[in-house]
Amino acid sequence: MFSPTLRNFLSVSMRSWRTTLTLNSDDESLNAGDVKISCGIFQGDSLSPLLFCLAVIPLSKLLIDAQYGYKMLDENINHIIYMDGLKLFAKNDQQLKGLLTIVKQFSDDIRLQFGLNKCAKATFIKEKMTETSNVYLDQQNTIKELDPAESYKYLGVIEGGWNKAFSDEGKDRERMLSQSKSNTQDS
Q1: 9-67: per-residue pLDDT in tens?
Q2: What global pTM score does this model have?
Q3: CA distance 144 to 139
Q4: How far apart are CA 142 and CA 134, in angstroms?
Q5: I want to staple 160 with a disulfide (CB 3.0 to 4.6 A). Which of 34, 43, 128, 151 is the partner?
Q6: Cα 86 to Cα 99: distance, rounded to the nearest angstrom
Q7: Where's the Reverse transcriptase domain (predicted)?
Q8: Comparing C-alpha atoms, which of 79, 101, 81 is closest to residue 90?
Q9: Is the separation of the CB atoms in 78 and 90 below 8 Å?
Q10: Cα(135)–Cα(14) distance, rounded to whole angstroms?
Q11: CA gap 131, 150 in Å, rounded
């Protein structure tokens, strides 16, 4: 799938990855010297997001082949992969569990660790966030339902908790308007 030149470059480069650990205190600075990165992709490296995207291209193909998700212009849409994140779309919890099973199996196969503590599930019915139940992948792994009052950011955009976010923003604007009215009346 990838050119031998690219594979060779990454293989040689990754074998030479190192970092230096330094512990600074008020009195002194302790240096552990070079530490070899022997497993995985070094997070924080500028190459890291690109390598993630390259590594999950086969996962993208598996998800597309699953035929879950939403049909748009003769294409099935069931996921977005961006930099270091994955977002899944499914018509129902059964499809979502199917997609998550594919992701888990693929992740286990290539030893890619997804931070389940950073995962959440949100269900929308007619554009309204609706509370349903958690999705249980297995006995150890659960994707929790996002509380409708909570929100999280995906690529800088608030995902969930819209009522609270819009309500707070509306109150801030109302406050700013009333302050500007009182300022103009004072002049």
Answers
A1: 888 888 888 888 888 888 888 888 888 877 767 667 777 778 878 888 999 999 999 98
A2: 0.66
A3: 14
A4: 7
A5: 151
A6: 11
A7: 28-157
A8: 79
A9: yes
A10: 36
A11: 12
Q: Which residues pair with 128 in a beta bridge?
A: 125
What is the residue whose two structure tokens read 């004072």?
A: 186
Q: Is 140 left (phi over 0), alpha (psi -120 to 50) or beta?
A: alpha
Separation CA 48–CA 111 (nearest Å): 16
State how far the Cα of 173 lies from the Cα of 171, in Å rounded to an integer: 5
| Listed residue (166, 119, 170, 163) closest to 141, CA to CA | 119
φ and ψ at 54, to 5 degrees?
-65, -40
Angle in degrees, CA 53, 82, 145, rounded to 5: 120
Whole-angstrom CA distances from 50 to 84, 119, 181, 186 are 8, 21, 50, 56
The values of phi and psi at residue 89, to 5°, are -130, 130
